[in-house]
Design a protein that fits this description.
Strands 4-7-6 form a three-stranded mixed β-sheet. It has a two-stranded antiparallel sheet with strand order 1-2. Helices cover 43% and strands 24% of the residues. The chain has six helices and seven strands, in the order H-E-E-H-E-H-E-H-E-H-E-E-H. It has helices at residues 2-24, 42-45, 63-71, 84-90, 105-113, 134-142, and strands at residues 27-31, 34-37, 51-55, 77-78, 99-104, 117-122, 127-132. It has two domains: 2-37, no CATH class; 42-142, Phage tail protein beta-alpha-beta fold.
Length: 143
């Protein structure tokens, strides 16, 4: 019985050591009882997925102004507005959008632009732009 107890105790000791070794591969001990995962968060890897809360001032009156304000600090920029984006740039900002969040940066940009526009991004150059959705093209051709 005594030998069996020692074997069980030895097995438990070995298994706990294996678990500790496994935890050390991607975790860092920051103090005696705290282990932290040693990797970037999802929003740090993909800034457009970060969670934002917006509160736009009265001086932000156009959609283009709002898009530039929201992108500040994200590392992304709005490709210089020309062509179709110029129309979006000069549209008035709906007052209902002045307070928005918590939402992802991606959703905030799409919401500010509106449902007629499709957000596009180039993650290599960290640039965003908007295209008119196909359904809007067909509606404008009918008019």
């Amino acid at each position: 019985m005594q030998i069996r107890r020692k074997l069980v105790l030895l097995a438990l000791l070995c298994s706990s050591t294996a678990v500790q070794a496994e935890q050390r591969e991607n975790q860092v001990r920051t103090d005696r009882y705290t282990l932290v995962t040693a990797e970037a968060r999802a929003d740090q890897k993909s800034p457009l997925k970060s969670i934002v809360n917006l509160s736009l001032g009265k001086d932000v009156s156009m959609v283009g102004d709002a898009l530039r304000e929201v992108l500040k600090g994200s590392g992304y920029r709005w490709q210089s507005p020309d062509g179709q984006d110029q129309l979006l740039n000069t549209l008035p900002l709906p007052s209902v959008i002045r307070e928005l969040g918590p939402v992802t940066l991606n959703d905030a940009l799409q919401t500010i632009a509106g449902e007629a526009w499709q957000l596009r991004s180039d993650t290599l150059h960290r640039v965003i732009w908007f295209d008119v959705k196909e359904t809007q093209h067909s509606l404008s051709l009918q008019e």
